[in-house]
Amino acid sequence: MVKEFVEADNASVIIVDDEVIGAIQFDEEDDPMYRHAGIDVFITAPRHGQGLGSDAVRTLARCLIEDRGHHRLTIDPAADNEQAIRAYRRVGFREVGIMHEYERGPDGTWHDGLLMEMLAEDFIDE
Ligand SMILES: CC(C)(COP(=O)(O)OP(=O)(O)OC[C@H]1O[C@@H](n2cnc3c(N)ncnc32)[C@H](O)[C@@H]1OP(=O)(O)O)[C@@H](O)C(=O)NCCC(=O)NCCS
């Protein structure tokens, strides 16, 4: 469904039907003792709930596991972001735990994050 990633500095815009509908990026921990990659994704609101977020995360996860050799991936939505949590579960991520007052919101107050992780063997590659 997600047609193309235009890559730059570990980040890509997400293009569907010639329209930019979001962006996705990853960062890598390269210390061999702790090697893993983290994913961050954004889809424009009118395109939420159409399977595009999970599809984009699945596509990048496949690249990180198969091409870049990662055995473990993380993603950290806001703890109350049920839509994101459901989207990431569909790819194989599972909840690790709450990170208290992890992220500052637009109003300047801290809010909780949810650490999710996925091992390569748990990847749901549809
Ligand atoms: C999080 C985000 C990337 C998910 O992308 P998406 O394209 O909307 O996700 P999908 O359509 O693949 O999956 C959404 C899931 O949430 C469900 N959902 C939709 N609206 C929902 C709502 N209001 N509350 C709870 N669940 C909802 C869908 O049914 C689907 O779950 P299911 O497959 O089990 O039925 C997107 O919502 C987004 O960009 N949000 C703003 C930025 C953000 O929060 N980024 C996360 C940073 S980690």
CATH classification class: Alpha Beta
Fraction of residues in H or I helices: 10-25%
Largest sheet entry = 7 strands, mixed
How many structural domains can be distinguished in the coordinates? 1
- List the strand order in the largest sheet: 1-2-3-4-5-7-6
Contiguous helical run count: 2
Strand content: 35-45%
Report on this model:
The chain has 126 residues and is of the alpha+beta class. It has a single domain, classed as Aminopeptidase (3-Layer(aba) Sandwich). Helices cover 21% and strands 44% of the residues. The chain has two helices and seven strands. A seven-stranded mixed beta sheet has the order 1-2-3-4-5-7-6. The longest helix has 16 residues. The mean pLDDT is 94. The structure holds coenzyme A. Coenzyme A binds next to strand 4, helix 1 and helix 2.
Show the helix and strand layout:
Blueprint: E1 4-8, E2 11-16, E3 19-29, E4 36-43, H1 52-67, E5 72-75, H2 82-91, E6 94-104, E7 110-119
Parallel strand pairs: 4-5
Antiparallel strand pairs: 1-2, 2-3, 3-4, 5-7, 6-7
The protein binds coenzyme A (COA).
